[in-house]
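forwarding from the other thread:

> can someone predict this with pyridoxal-5'-phosphate?

sure thing
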Amino acid sequence: MVERDSLTTVGSRLADVRGRVEAAALSSGRDPASVRIVGVTKTVGRDAVDDAYQAGLRDFGENRVQDSVQKFSQPLPADAVLHLIGYLQTNKVRDAVALFDVVHSLDRIALADGLQHRAAVLGKTLTVLLQVNVAREEQKHGCAPDDTLTLLNHALTLPSLRVVGLMTIAPLVADPEAARPVFGDLRRLRDDLVAATGSALPELSMGMTNDFEVAIAEGATMVRIGRAIFA
Ligand SMILES: *Cc1c(COP(=O)(O)O)cnc(C)c1O
């Protein structure tokens, strides 16, 4: 009964992660319901995705458009939400807008315009987060912190995009505490942008398997978790 076993495994890992998310929220005085788990399925096939859905997961994150088109050629049930969390090339915009509900990796004005164009063609409103390279790492994608207000102001003029917040990827470090300043900086940048534009930006997508508890303490509303659920 291999299928049953894998379902139990994904289900019990998900339950464990849920418990840790709740504990982290409660210990910083937050409502556990204010933190959404986005299960990152980029390393697993459709069977594991379906197991996770069976176990109650509703938010699924992928980082490559082409892989996702394959994996979700058979659509998930209507209450599932698909999140694109990886870098989005301009030539993948058409497929991305058709497939995904939420794009976490909006990091440049030309991409905002491309997403707007395709979303309008499909008559769809696309939920987006602005990806910020808070740690200013050379090799990382994401908008520079100083350019985020300009990108936000532009995105806010685009009628088919709904900007709900910011996303960042912390540098990979052994000690999750080392990522705390990055998460705090994203939250403070969000607060500054809300003050500057008057738009609500409730979502902070930050924290992965290694560091999600610290991210929750710093205000994460979406944690993107792969290995802890699907390894
Ligand atoms: C792979 C990935 C994750 C999940 O990382 P884990 O360490 O497996 O939890 C989160 N965010 C992004 C952008 C990723 O590419």
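The first strand starts at residue 36 and ends at 40. thats all i got for now
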